[in-house]
Design a protein that fits this description.
alpha/beta, 163 residues, two-stranded antiparallel ribbon, single chain
């Protein structure tokens, strides 16, 4: 793409060829940029990431905690994450150039994979509750995971029709 832009904008007398390291050199010259590996992000989740909505929510939570005297040890964050069945490494990871201070760069993946859902919870003082793992299925084969010595005994593993 860079070569096409140079060809389109350059004069006919000046023949410029973009080298294979031009992106690296460009990023080195512009300190506000950095390259990051992209990560997969479900398309539905990407549509829900509006900073105005998120910041307003956190402000409301802080005001509620102050109003009712809610302590850190009584404030929990619960979240769920999914892991694609049979995926060992990051899918389609590629590098992207960004000026985003948080360094988060995502590529959107289609929502057509089967997932294991993991729910975790931690309070504001650092105490974490055991993981809750939901596997798609109808038959509970506890021997698949109960005999695994690496799996903590307090984790909860259960089934659901749709995972």
């Amino acid at each position: 793409m860079a070569q096409a832009l140079v060809d389109k904008r350059g004069s006919q007398a000046l023949q410029i060829t973009i080298g294979k390291h031009w992106v690296y050199r460009f990023v080195q010259r512009h300190l506000e940029l950095d390259s990051r590996l992209t990560r997969q992000l479900d398309s539905q989740r990407a549509q829900c990431e509006d900073p105005k909505i998120i910041n307003a929510w956190f402000k409301r939570i802080q005001e509620t905690r102050e109003e009712f005297g809610i302590l850190d040890e009584d404030t929990y964050n619960m979240d769920e994450t999914g892991s694609a069945m049979g995926v060992i490494a990051s899918l389609g990871a590629s590098k992207a150039i960004t000026s985003m201070p948080c360094g988060r760069v995502c590529s959107i993946q289609p929502g057509n994979r089967e997932w294991v859902t993991i729910i975790e919870g931690i309070n504001a003082s650092g105490f974490a509750i055991p993981l809750f793992i939901i596997i798609k299925g109808k038959v509970h084969m506890a021997t698949w995971y109960l005999q695994n010595p690496d799996l903590p005994k307090d984790w909860v593993v259960t089934l659901s029709d749709n995972g």
